[in-house]
Specification:
This protein is an alpha/beta fold and about 280 residues long. Helix content is about 50%, strand content about 10%. α1 packs antiparallel against α5.
Length: about 280
């Protein structure tokens, strides 16, 4: 697989194009499903990029949509072929949030609100190990080790010399006080956050306790944005047994406005660094 082929993004772009062709034809997903003798849910999953799509599926759909330009058909079939390749994360086996990793790998910018813990891209190994073990107490040591390695591998996006991920993180103050692992682990973790926050493409703000009720009161979420105009922004909400991906413009806009409120309610960048530094020193005592 070529290094610049991201199967998750290929699948998503292909789904968007198939949806566009269906809408141009004036057909509903239910009508298409009837024509192909498949379930409506299959058509929906193909269009939202959550399901692998075969070249045969593309050929059949193009037939239903009466696509006459063979170059378009061949292009879509190539995208289907690329989308069935494997990203680097597949080498680690079954990863519950593999769709998210694929999106994060291709994203240009990422905005995160994290109320409970230091967000994954900023975690040290010791902190990540404690988080994974605490969050998955019934998993095997081997399984937890794999999850830690995947998390650390993801961090290459913010340390890359060329086109690093633009990261903006709002951390609830509670995440800084929650002792994960040990006080030593926390001291090293907060020092790591301070170090990374010095990078020009990483911004960290702390939402202080004194704010009270705020725009992120319902929990963690992330907003991913992409350089290619064909790729719409995605809101990602992590769940215990399943994750939620929101792509409709009005949903993305609502969460974007919420994020702007969170940024406004948070300490500014310098005040946030000062608080993180003070707490890191407290952990060293």
């Amino acid at each position: 697989m070529a290094s610049n082929v991201n199967p998750t993004v290929r699948r998503r772009r292909l789904g968007q194009e198939l949806r566009r062709l269906r809408e141009l034809k004036g057909m509903t997903a239910e009508e298409v499903a009837e024509r192909l003798l498949v379930s409506q849910s299959k058509i929906s999953r193909l269009e939202n990029g959550r399901r692998s799509i075969s070249q045969r599926d593309v050929r059949d759909l193009c037939g239903v949509y009466e696509v006459e330009d063979q170059r378009i058909v061949e292009s879509l079939m190539q995208m289907a072929k690329d989308s069935r390749q494997q990203g680097w994360w597949h080498a680690f086996g079954d990863i519950p949030y593999s769709v998210y990793i694929g999106l994060e790998t291709d994203a240009e910018s990422l905005r995160v609100y994290e109320p409970q813990i230091i967000t994954g891209l900023l975690q040290t190994r010791a902190y990540a190990e404690a988080i994974v073990q605490g969050g998955s107490p019934e998993s095997s040591g081997q399984e937890n080790d794999k999850r830690v390695e995947v998390r650390l591998r993801r961090q290459s996006r913010i340390t890359a010399d060329k086109d690093p991920l633009r990261l903006w993180v709002v951390l609830d103050e509670g995440a800084l006080h929650r002792v994960v692992g040990s006080r030593q682990v926390m001291r090293e973790q907060l020092e790591h956050v301070m170090e990374l926050s010095q990078l020009p493409h990483i911004t960290v703000q702390v939402l202080p306790f004194e704010v009270g009720a705020h725009a992120g009161i319902n929990g963690q979420y992330s907003i991913l944005e992409f350089a290619d105009a064909a790729d719409s922004s995605v809101v990602y909400i992590e769940g215990v047994t399943s994750d939620l991906y929101l792509e409709k413009p009005h949903d993305v806009q609502k969460y974007t406005v919420m994020y702007e409120h969170l940024r406004a309610q948070s300490l500014n960048v310098e005040q946030s660094r000062q608080l993180v530094e003070r707490l890191a020193k407290d952990y060293a005592r």
